[in-house]
Amino acid sequence: DPAGTTYRRVLLKISGEALMGDQGFGLHPPTVQRIAQEVQSVHALGVEICMVIGGGNIFRGLQGSAQGMERTTADYMGMLATVMNALAMQSALEALRVHTRVITAIRMDEVAEPYIRRRAVRHLEKKRVCIFAAGTGNPYFTTDTAATLRANEMSCEAIFKGTKVDGVYDKDPIKHPDAKRYDQVSYDDVLAKRLGVMDASAIALARDNNLPIIVFSLDEPGGFRGILAGEGTYTKVH
Ligand code: UDP
After folding, report:
1. Angle CA 18–139–147, to nearest 5
2. What is the ipTM of this complex?
3. Ligand 1 pocket, residue 16 CB under 6 Å
4. Ligand 1 center to residue 145 CA distance, Å?
C-alpha cells in the first residue's frame, strides 16, 4: 500500500462551485490551484487518482430549462461547462508537475481524449491523474452519477466527495448550529432521509456496487491527504 494510507485508487468528486472561490460564478484560478495542491499531496503518496468535477459554477441544465431552454440542450451545455473546469484543473496540476489526462464522455479530440476504459486504466497505472469530463455524456444525469459510474468502472475503492462541510449532517449545518454530523450512515438512510449527499441515482448506483462515499471538507488545508490517512472528521456512507 502507498505510504500512510490503505487506499490504492480513489475518485475525488468536487462540484463546479468549489472552483469559484468567493466569486458568485465561474473559475477562480487561485482556488483551482489550492485544490490542485491537495490532489498533488495525495498523488505524492502513490495513490492513483481519478477526478470528476461538476459544472454548476458555469451552467446547470435544470436552471437553463427552468428559464425556457430545451432541457437536453441545456444539459449538453452543462456537460461542456465541466470540460472547462477539467481543463482548468489539468492546467493547475501540470503546473505542479503532476501528469494528467482529461478524458471526455463526449468526443472532442482536439481538446481531450475520448473515454476508453482500458486506456484510462492504463493512465492510472502510470500514475497519471485522470480527470473525467462531460459527465456521463447523457442529459438528465449529474456529475455525481458520472463520478459513481467512473469510480465503479475504474475499480476505485471509494469516492471522496469534497464539500464545504466536514461530512453529512441531519440538517444543513450552515443554517442550523445544532445540526449533528454522522460518522457513518447507510445508503438507504441517505435516500430515506433525503440527506443531501448526492442525488438518488448516484447513491443507488454506489449502493448496488458497495462503493463507499466519503464526504469531507475541501476547505481544510491538507484535508484530502489527512482523510486518506484516516485522520480528521468525515462521514462514510456505506
Ligand atoms: N450534466 C448532464 N449529464 C451528466 C452530467 C452533467 O447532463 O452526466 C449536466 C447537467 O445539466 C448538470 C450540469 O451538467 O446540471 C453540471 O453538472 P452538475 O450539476 O452535476 O455540477 P455540480 O453541481 O457538481 O457543480
Report:
1. 45
2. 0.98
3. yes
4. 9
The residues near 49 (Cβ < 8 Å, ≥ 6 apart) are 9, 10, 11, 12, 39, 42, 43, 124, 129, 130
Cβ of residue 65 lying under 6 Å from some atom of ligand 1: no
Sign of CA pseudo-dihedral 40, 42, 45, 46: negative
- 7 assigned to a ligand binding site: no
Cα–Cα distance for residue pair 104/113, rounded to 1 Å: 6
Tell whether ligand 1 has an atom less than 6 A from the beta carbon of residue 7: no
**How many whole angstroms from 202 Cα to the centroid of ligand 1?**
12
Ligand 1 centroid to Cα of residue 4, in Å, is 34
Residue in this structure with the C-alpha cell 478524458, named with its chain if needed: 103
Query: Which whole-number Å values give the CA distances from 96 to 36, 44, 133, 209, in the listed order?
Result: 8, 11, 20, 34
Q: Find out if CATH 3.40.1160.10 is the number for domain 9-237.
A: yes
On whether 55 is known to bind a ligand per the annotation, the reply is: yes
Of 12, 9, 3, 205, residue with least CA distance to 122? 9
Q: What is the dihedral of CA 173, 175, 177, 182, to 10 degrees?
A: -20
Q: Specify the pLDDT at position 4.
A: 76
Tell which one of 69, 72, 73, 75 to mutate to probe ligand 1, the residue whose CB is within 8 A of the most ligand atoms: 75
1 pLDDT above the threshold of 60: no
Residues 69, 154: Cα–Cα separation, whole Å: 34
Q: Could you tell me if the CB of 79 is within 6 A of ligand 1?
A: yes
Regarding pTM above 0.80, the answer is yes
Distance CA 30, CA 44 (A): 21
